[in-house]
Design a protein that fits this description.
heterotrimer, A mainly alpha (about 500), B mainly alpha (about 160), C alpha/beta (about 325), B: about 160 residues, mainly alpha, 7 helices, flat, C: about 325 residues, alpha/beta, D-Maltodextrin-Binding Protein, domain 2, 2 domains, 6-stranded mixed beta sheet, 11 strands
Chain lengths: ~500, ~160, ~325
């Protein structure tokens, strides 16, 4: 590759990453919106630089989403929802810098792994996407939902209730099979359903604002040292396994159309917990609980390129914007791209490498100011979070209706906190509800109503078996835990 | 009334309301065997069952060990605090109501000022300065840099 | 959503709606700049189409053109913005069948009938296709399968022109296959490639990459005439099934567009379509030129709307 191409690509990668971290960190501005906002600007650019910039934005946004998740308990992106739990717990313990360091470092590891997969295996792996039939997607959704059982810490019943409420929210909008409107009350704003990020921002950010405003004693913000600690050797060893788990799960999820970062983060979180030697720390500030989902969603940012490069099929909204970027520059992604425009493909790979390095540099420089910002006096901090929420949520579809919806979910979030119902099962239900329902019904239409189709499809059968094992395992743990707890102190 | 009982009751009410709405989804000639009502009805029934389990369990434990259920929650019993929470919510609602008229910058400055004052309990010049400059920073960020068309309000017609 | 919540919150929702209704989206663009409004997001189908067209349109018509993406409500917001704009030709809307479907399926503030069709530019050819390594060589094979065994056909979206094509094909061919819908063309394409579906219907543009790589086989054109790029593929009519749709791409404006604005567009579009560089571009993008002047386009739109409404009512999607 010549130096003048590199001179175009490297700045494009840095620019994209900065833009991406920034957009990803603003709750409501999803990676796809961040990329879409950038797209018109890339119109006049060199095609390779433009594509690199868009891909780098995706990489940056997936890391950026974890910043507010850790610092203000609000996922900036869908995929950062799983990071909220342990990230915010660490922040509460005064370990925000460490949490951000783990997120950044894990994102880097995941990104490099994903890039390696794309470079070496893009063409052969395109068959992975083709293995996914409607029954397989349904089973994947069920597998994701089975995580609810282990997210529901104290009460399985409450966790399941939250999950079902999430599934109910996901039914709002156009019915996936017949096209009739369900629960929309004639409103065009609800035709395409309620975006999951709205539910998350409402439940976490607005709910937290409401809950904190009702607290009596104003806890002082824990003073933060604005120094970032990267994982030391001991921690490094400890988070290696969750990172590996996250990277592998993310690699597969990225390749499946419709999978996306959020599902992979939850699955990675769950798996990291299962294989951890310190399971009890999860939910109370475990570094592993950040490493796994963050490695996963950054891997997705790279492997999402597999279906788009090899098949020309976007696997997520972000990939769809990237596809638009290709088309705007007269490039048609698909099997022929490697032949007809191999220079663009190599340029993109080089750009992604630069983007992952840029992410570490930019991410590191941004941490100090971010931590400084969230260490301001409480009333100011909360006022700015409120302002951030109403501004960011509006941007999804420039809709005040959405701001109202976020406030409504804030009330729901407050109520759930009051009733001690865990929030994540509801998020999971909202994220997966549509995928589960549409593919369940689609599979039955195709099989003529025969439920055996879910067992005949090998991918589906495998996923459903794993989901069943999860459920049995978690239920057994719950039963044991309840017995052990009886008579002892209540859990904190 | 303990919280689980209240939660179970609300859950049952939600399940009922949702069931009613789901049952009235019109039939379609394009419908599959499950239909657009199929899974919503299943969800409603499952939620109802879970709610009933919770109600039953809370009634049983309420007799054995009263009030332990509420100890884990960090939100105290409603009453005294609810007005504060509603006030916080009202600020957001007022923002939505006025932003089409007053425009983004003015409304946001108002929101920043109101929240800081509401939670801090004091009015000072600092709060006003922070609110106004904060709103300008947000405007630069969202409108100028990201190019998101936040409402301009009446100012858009004046200039 | 109000389902889950008590009275105080539904009042919030009412407030929100009130605030929304009173927000009027006025355009404050300076004159001589024409804003092309699309409901698609940057990078989406209509957005890319407009951005690619602008340099050529500028050359033919003069002036400045900018693209404005008004997303949300599946086109409802864009329609409302255009319907409420001054009818002076500074704001035009890029039409696709989506705006008719949204008007019929929901209760938007402005419907397609509240807009003035201006001119049509193109048609997106709709094609029936199967996987190249499938056992189906012709449309007849697919129909035979649907007659004798379990046919499985796919359309990209639940309530869409593509779904309508498949339902009508099913009626007219007298077969009873299972018809499934997906969340967009790419999603469905995978299910054709992995043989979950016997046949899919979609825009030529969407499947172009796979077609070029020889992984798909075209079975029929769902239009009035054959495509110059694929002269060997017969239309459905030629194969004995009276079914043709025209997925349009045109422009519309607010009601009451002045005659000189209409005349300017009617004069410019044929010139634009004849422009050699632009012709190269749109042919590459698999678009079929389909200029219709104002009067013809308005009549076409009325007929299209009526037919779609009839289909949706007949199939019970709307009452």
């Amino acid at each position: 590759m010549s130096t003048d191409v590199l001179l175009l690509i490297v700045p494009a990668a840095f620019g994209g990453v900065i833009w991406g971290i920034f957009g990803g960190a603003l709750p409501g501005i999803s990676p796809s919106i961040t990329m879409a906002l950038l797209l018109p600007l890339t119109y006049g650019m060199d095609p390779t630089a433009a594509i690199v910039m868009l891909a780098a934005t995706y990489v940056g946004a997936e890391y950026g989403g974890s910043i507010p998740a850790i610092l203000i308990r609000t996922p900036g992106t869908n995929a950062a929802a799983a990071t909220v739990v342990d990230g915010y717990a660490m922040k509460e313990q005064g370990r925000a810098g460490e949490a951000l360091g783990i997120s950044l470092y894990s994102g880097f590891v995941g990104g490099l792994f994903g890039l390696g997969v794309v470079v070496l295996l893009a063409e052969p792996l395109s068959t992975v996407a083709l293995a996914f039939t409607p029954p397989a997607y349904f089973a994947l959704g069920v597998l994701g939902l089975s995580v609810i059982a282990s997210l529901a810490r104290e009460s399985l019943v409450k966790g399941l209730m939250a999950g079902v409420l999430g599934l109910m929210i996901a039914t709002i909008g156009t019915d996936p099979v017949t096209g009739v409107n369900r629960f929309t009350f004639g409103s065009p704003e609800l035709l395409s359903g309620i975006p999951p990020i709205l539910v998350m921002v409402g439940l976490f950010a607005v709910g937290e604002l409401l809950a904190q405003s009702g607290e009596i004693g104003w806890r002082q913000a824990v003073p933060e040292r604005a120094r970032i600690r990267f994982p030391g050797p001991a921690l490094w060893r400890r988070i290696a396994l969750p990172q590996a788990i996250g990277s592998v799960i993310g690699a597969f999820e990225g390749m499946m159309p419709g999978g996306g970062g959020a599902v992979s983060s939850f699955l990675a979180y769950n798996e990291a917990r299962r294989w951890s030697r310190r399971q009890d720390e999860f939910g109370r500030g475990s570094p592993e609980g950040i490493a796994a989902p963050e490695a996963a969603n950054n891997t997705v940012a790279c492997t999402a390129l597999v279906p788009i490069l090899s098949l020309g099929i976007p696997s997520s909204n972000s990939a769809a914007v990237l596809l638009g970027g290709f088309l705007l520059h007269g490039l048609i992604p698909g099997p022929m791209l490697f032949v007809s425009h191999s220079d663009v493909v190599t340029g993109l790979f080089a750009g992604l490498l630069a983007a992952n390095i840029a992410m570490v540099i930019v991410g590191y420089l941004m941490m100090g100011p971010c931590i400084w910002l969230v260490s301001r006096p409480r009333p100011y901090l909360m006022a700015f979070i409120y302002a951030l929420v109403v501004s960011g949520v509006y941007a999804i579809e420039t809709s005040l209706f959405h701001v109202g919806v976020a406030l409504v979910f804030g009330v729901v979030g407050y109520a759930l906190r009051y009733f001690e119902v865990p929030l994540l099962p509801m998020v999971l239900g909202v994220v997966l509800g549509f995928m589960v329902e549409s593919n369940y019904r689609r599979a039955l239409v195709l099989s003529g109503g025969d439920h055996m189709t879910f067992l005949q499809d090998p991918v589906s059968a495998a996923f459903l078996t794993v989901a069943l094992l999860f459920l049995l395992g978690s239920t057994a743990r719950h039963a044991l835990g309840t017995r052990r707890r009886r008579g002892a102190e209540l859990p904190v | 009334m303990n919280r689980d009982l209240a939660l179970g009751t609300s859950g049952a009410v939600i399940a009922g309301g949702y069931y009613w709405l789901a049952a009235t989804i019109p039939d379609s000639a394009l419908a599959d065997a499950v239909g657009p009502q199929g899974l919503p009805i299943v969800y409603a029934v499952v939620l109802l069952l879970l709610s009933l389990i919770l109600v039953a369990r809370s009634l049983r434990t309420a007799n054995l060990e009263p009030r332990t259920q509420a100890l884990g929650s960090r939100i105290p019993a409603p009453g005294f605090h609810l007005p504060r929470v509603l006030g916080m919510l009202a600020i957001g609602v007022v923002y939505i109501a006025v932003v089409p008229w007053l425009g983004y910058v003015v409304s946001l400055a108002g929101l920043l000022f109101a929240v800081t004052w509401y939670l801090g309990g004091v009015i000072s010049r600092t709060i006003a300065i922070v609110a106004v400059s904060g709103a300008i920073v947000f405007w630069l960020l969202f409108v100028r840099l990201l190019g998101i068309a936040h409402p301009t309000g009446v100012w858009g017609q004046l200039f | 959503m109000t389902v889950f919540l008590g009275g105080s919150v539904s009042r919030v929702a009412v407030l929100v709606l009130a605030a929304l209704g009173s927000a009027c989206a006025g355009s404050t663009e300076p004159r001589r700049v024409v804003t092309l409004v699309t409901h698609s997001s940057p990078g989406g189908g209509s957005d890319v189409f407009l951005r690619e067209m602008i340099p050529h349109l500028t050359r033919v018509m003069g002036g400045t053109f900018i693209v404005q993406n008004i997303q949300g409500g599946s086109g409802a917001k864009a329609m409302a913005a255009v319907a409420g704009a001054r009818p002076d030709g500074t704001l035009v809307y890029a039409t696709t069948p989506t705006f008719i479907y949204t008007s019929l399926l929901s209760d938007p503030a402005a419907r397609y009938t509240d807009l003035e069709p201006l001119v049509n530019l193109f048609f997106d050819p709709e094609v029936l296709y199967t996987a190249a390594d499938s056992t189906f060589a012709t449309l007849g094979d697919v129909l035979d399968r649907a007659r004798t065994g379990r046919g499985r056909w796919g359309a990209a979206n639940p309530a869409s022109l593509e779904r309508q094509v498949m339902e009508r094909l099913k009626q007219r061919a007298g077969v009873a296959p299972a018809i499934t819908t997906f969340e967009g063309g790419g999603d469905m394409l995978i299910n054709v490639l992995n043989h979950t579906l016997d046949m899919g219907v979609g825009e030529l543009q969407e499947i172009r990459a796979q077609l070029d790589a020889g992984r798909l086989r075209l079975l029929a054109i769902v239009g009035d005439e054959r495509l110059p790029q694929f002269p060997d593929v017969a239309t459905l009519e030629e194969q004995g099934i009276a079914l043709a749709v025209r997925k349009f791409r045109g422009l519309a404006g607010p009601k009451g567009l002045p005659a000189d604005v209409i005349a300017a567009w009617e004069a410019a579009i044929p010139k634009l379509l004849d422009d050699p560089t632009y012709r190269q571009l749109y042919t590459d993008n698999s678009l079929q030129p389909g200029f219709m002047p104002h009067a013809e386009y308005a009549a076409f739109m009325r007929a299209f709307g009526a037919e779609t409404e009839a289909f949706l009512k007949q199939s019970g999607v709307i009452q």
